[in-house]
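[step 3/7] fold_predict: job queued, chain A
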Amino acid sequence: MDEMKMEREMQEMLHRCAEGMQAPEKLKTRIDFAIKSGEAPRKVHRPFAKRLAAVALVAAVAVTGAVAGNGIVAYTFGNSWSNERMSYTETQAELTDGTKMPESFSNGFVFKNGVHVYGGEKDEDGNVLREWTNIDAEYERNGVTLHLGTGEAHNDGTTVDTSTFDDTREIDGVTVQYSADDYKAVPADYKPTAEEQAAVEAGDLQIGYGSNKITEQEYQFLRWVQDGVSYTLSGFDLGMTADDLFQMAQEIIVS
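[step 4/7] structure written:
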């Protein structure tokens, strides 16, 4: 698989996987980054609260599932993306009632295309619990791609580990959560510096082993729910501040 295609699939996976279940996004990002790097990440020691949440989630649901409050385990299955790329008009016609998707943002990001996302959940016995179709969109500005994910929000008893977010703000009565993480792909024999190891242990850096060269990226992510619709904004190397992304979220929320 060529690098460009792998990059696209990685970004799609990040903001679409288990979208309705809200499994911790940072954890899904770490796993997908390791896959892209070519090898599972080495064991890292993180602060107890974050480490406990991550270990519990991985052990119970293998990343793509979630544990409901009643103890039932649900697994996401069959996340797939249609091959067609819809225009803005076509995308608007496919949105769930009440979903907001701007044609452009004040900072210059402009709608590029929309796509259907298909998925669902099964229980431990393989019984289908529910299926869904979400709509996602790509926006571009000066060669930089940003993703807007939308879908029906489901209150199925799952919870979000708020400790994995770097900033939480209230915008017009809506809670918006933000995170930013550094990712470094390195060769299998790479030895992290003392500074890098400290960042790994603090949960601020993810190192993926197995790449044929060293690359570094920053992944930024916002999520919120408004009027029964779940939204995410995300992207790699956006060159934006948290304030910039919160402003984009505000433009959607108050529109």
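[step 5/7] annotate
The beta strands are 65-67, 73-81, 110-122, 128-141, 144-152, 167-171, 174-186, 205-209, 215-226, 229-236.
DSSP finds six helices and ten strands in the chain.
exit 0
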